[in-house]
Amino acid sequence: MPTGALRGFRDYLPPEAGARSEILRRMRAAARRAGYVELETPSVESFELYQVKSGEGIAAQTWLFRDKGDRAVALVSETTPSLARVFVERGKSEPLPVKWFTVSKIWRYEEPQAGRTREFTQFNLDILGVPGVAAEADLLTTAALVLDEVGAEGLYAFRISDRAVAEGIGRLFGANDMGRFFRAVDGYRKNPPAQFEGELAAAGLSAERAAELGDLFASAGEGVAPGELDAFFADLGRRGLDPAAQEGLGRLQSLFGLLGKAGLGDRIVFDPTIVRGIAYYTSTVFEAYSRSGDGRSVFGGGRYDHLIELFEGPSTPAAGLAIGDQTLELLLRSGGRWPDGEPPLDTYVVVVNASLASEALALVQELRRSGVSADCDLLARSMSRQLKEAARRRCRRALILGLKEAKPGAVVERDLASGAQRELPRAEAGRRA
């Protein structure tokens, strides 16, 4: 009989499963604080749903099969098509703007590597019904809140650009195949210079123009900070960007202004190499990336104003982002911020001898009902072993029943960090700590 998880899949045992649960709890709480409400969609959808959005090529990474009714169905490979389907079904009754978040299992048949498995959890934020960059500002400030709440503050920054600006740069430098040009630009930070220049040539750029574009990207460094933005945009304008690209620069200036006012000026840069590979993005695009090491992308997103129409819904401006659990875990571990596991118990009830086990169980139930996390020994172990178990589970305190020196009707509370003890009336011991 085979043992072990399938390739590209992972088991999460205690305490790691508890750590992941705690991360998702914090993410949900942060999203709700920002006014997002949770949407839950199925794990299996009609394969046609993905063909509408992504075309035939999506089959390569989709876990596709036929059900007992001979229908082509797929394990969910991304949440946005499901969100679009739900919005189209409810569009007439849903007041705008819609601010939804989802936490979904995702399956993609791709080569496993660091930060990428075939099954993972994805946290999405989406706004529908807001045509201006206020939507992107809300998404990025909420994303910053989410990342800070899980312990990533100081470990990340946002690279931001606009597809219209990227297209304008492509036209300016002579690209005649915009799809290939975008693929070349998307690989600028990942591929060696010779490969980058070769892909630009395939997109129609001359060797001279490809070298000039490489110099432009190099001048942006790791990204143009807000204080240098006006000068860099002025230089782009002098190069002869067309009106559509100039409009994109205007959107970016407005977005950077909003994000600066919101206190994110120290974690945003303009990066002309950010184009995002997904074709449905229509203007603003962005990524969060690690500030240390290899600058790995943590998540991406952008504006997708025409997606709802693909699903035969009304014209609806929309923007969103998706955070994968694997890349987030890598970021937190690299910064020493990964949680210890399950949140510790507050109280462990200890008995001097096994005859008091029923009293311990009764006290544990009182504590739990009052909102205090609590447990007790179920193996009739000695008092010293029970205290060791309480320490192992990182409990704040032990409540000891049956000590001879305690007054009748009292329990002894021991602080497990300091070792200090005090007596408590039995009635007070069951109250919220």
**Spatial separation of the terminal alpha carbons:** 49 Å
* Average pLDDT over all residues: 93
CATH hierarchy, class of the largest domain: Alpha Beta
Q: In total, how many beta strands?
A: 16
Proportion in helices: 25-40%
Helix/strand/pairing category: alpha+beta
- Radius of gyration (CA) equals 27 Å
Strand order of the largest sheet: 1-5-6-11-10-9-7-8
Q: What best-fitting shape do the alpha-carbon axes yield?
A: elongated
Helix tally equals 15
Q: How can the largest sheet be summarized?
A: 8 strands, mixed
Which homologous superfamily in CATH is the superfamily of the largest domain?
A: Bira Bifunctional Protein, Domain 2
Low-confidence stretches: none
Furnish the topology, listing elements before pairings.
Layout: H1 16-33, E1 37-38, E2 44-46, H2 47-54, E3 64-66, E4 72-75, H3 80-90, E5 98-107, E6 119-128, H4 134-149, E7 156-162, H5 163-172, H6 178-186, H7 193-202, H8 207-219, H9 229-238, H10 243-261, E8 268-270, E9 284-290, E10 297-303, H11 307-310, E11 318-324, H12 325-334, E12 347-351, H13 357-369, E13 374-376, H14 383-392, E14 397-401, E15 410-415, E16 421-425, H15 426-429
Parallel strand pairs: 1-5, 7-8, 12-13, 12-14
Antiparallel strand pairs: 2-4, 3-4, 5-6, 6-11, 7-9, 9-10, 10-11, 14-15, 15-16
Helix pairs in contact: 1-4, 4-10, 5-10, 6-7, 7-8
